Amino acid sequence: MKPAKGTNRRELLKTIGSLPIIGSLLSQSAKGKSQDKVDAVTGPTFITRSDKQEYARLKNLDLNDPKIAATQKKMPVAKIGNLSLGRLISGSNLISMNMHARDLDYVRALAANYNTEERIFMTLKRCEEYGANSVVLKNHNFKQFRLSKYWSEWGGKMKWLADVITTDINKYERLLVEHLELGASAAYLWGGASDIWYYKKQKGNIIKAFEIMKKYDIPVGICAHRIEPIMFCEKEGIVPDFYMKTLHHDRYWSAHPKTNRRFIEMFEKDSPKHAEYHDNMFCHNHEETVAFMQDVKVPWIAFKVLAAGAIGAKEGLKYAFESGADFVCLGMFDFQVKQDAELTLKAIAESKNRKRPWIT
């Protein structure tokens, strides 16, 4: 199944929902809200004979094969610390079931049943095939799969950027070490922590978390959904190896008016009103973000560039790269990887003369 170019979230879900195995899952999910606990299925969910063949192909794919290497080299790379990363980075929300599906209650159950451990490994291997050689993961992702198994049994080489999630600075180092012991290549301060600490006037915790990460001789990043924590780091002279900052425009149907946007709304209960925050917006002032980041000399990984599926991949990738992003972190299902990689190459090529210099 190959989705048409420009396919939006609702059309895509309607398409995969028509497949026999997925259709049955949708009927099951209708019996209960997706907020209920959903455990990932452990075995492969093959849909067609060709799907089963693709599983075998990817599992046996030799990433050192000259033909595969030639495909990988099409993806431009840049450095973050001592890591050479493709400018397309695999996101993790489709793996962790943090779907940001607004009012589509069945989506979490659908994704959990589709994205089995084997399906996730297929996705990661396909990412590597097309030069996306790094992934953002949280330690709780490992309740569903082990990256070590992907490395050992699938011949994977995927580099892991660890998203250390906590707002308790006293737990930060212990959680960081857990990620590193599981094989993380880099780590960054969770954007939620940056936003919340900034809002609560606990900015010193941002500095403390940065200093803790720097002790471990790894590339270190600072993430935020709001531009103010990034501004704070720049003002204080904190120089991470990379920033992660959300970037998407607000020209999509579920966006709420600018006058109703509040700094901390992402971490409060969703509103039932369309004109207020309802798990629908992750960069509430994109113009300010783009303007400030123009002069930042640190590599910038833009994420939520599709506003969690509300913006088409072609449009979102183009906006991110032409606006100054050095990398894009994009959550992808296995069947989206090839097209998203191609769209990334096109967006980068069309953004060669952008205002913000490319960091290489």
Summary?
The protein is α/β, with parallel strands linked by helices. 39% of the residues lie in helices and 12% in strands.
What does it look like?
There is one protein chain. This protein is an alpha/beta fold. The chain has one domain: TIM Barrel (Alpha-Beta Barrel). It contains 15 helices and 10 strands. It has helices spanning 9-17, 20-29, 49-60, 66-72, 93-96, 107-114, 117-129, 147-154, 172-181, 191-199, 204-214, 227-236, 286-293, 313-322, 337-349; strands spanning 77-80, 83-86, 88-90, 134-137, 159-164, 186-189, 220-224, 242-246, 300-303, 327-330. The strands form 2 sheets. Strands 3-10-9-8-7-6-5-4 form an 8-stranded parallel sheet. Strands 1-2 form a two-stranded antiparallel sheet. Helix 9 (172-181) links the parallel strand 5 (159-164) and strand 6. Helix 2 (20-29) packs across helix 6 (107-114) and helix 3 packs across helix 7 (117-129). The protein is globular. The two termini are 36 Å apart.
> From the alpha-carbon coordinates, what is the Rg to the nearest angstrom?
20 Å
Question: What is the terminal-to-terminal distance?
Answer: 36 Å
CATH architecture, by name, is Alpha-Beta Barrel
> Any idea what the CATH superfamily is called?
NADP-dependent oxidoreductase domain
Approximate shape: globular
Domains, number: 1
Can you give the mean pLDDT? 89
Structural class: alpha/beta
The name of the CATH topology is TIM Barrel
Reading off the top of the CATH hierarchy, the class is best stated as Alpha Beta
Based on the structure, what is the oligomeric state of the protein chains?
A: single chain
Proportion of residues in extended strands: 5-15%
The helix-strand sequence is HHHHEEEHHHEHEHEHHEHEHEHEH
Compute the number of helices. Answer: 15
The main sheet orders its strands as 3-10-9-8-7-6-5-4
Helical amount:
25-40%
Q: How many strand segments? A: 10
Uncertain spans, ≥5 residues at pLDDT below 50?
Answer: 1-5, 17-41
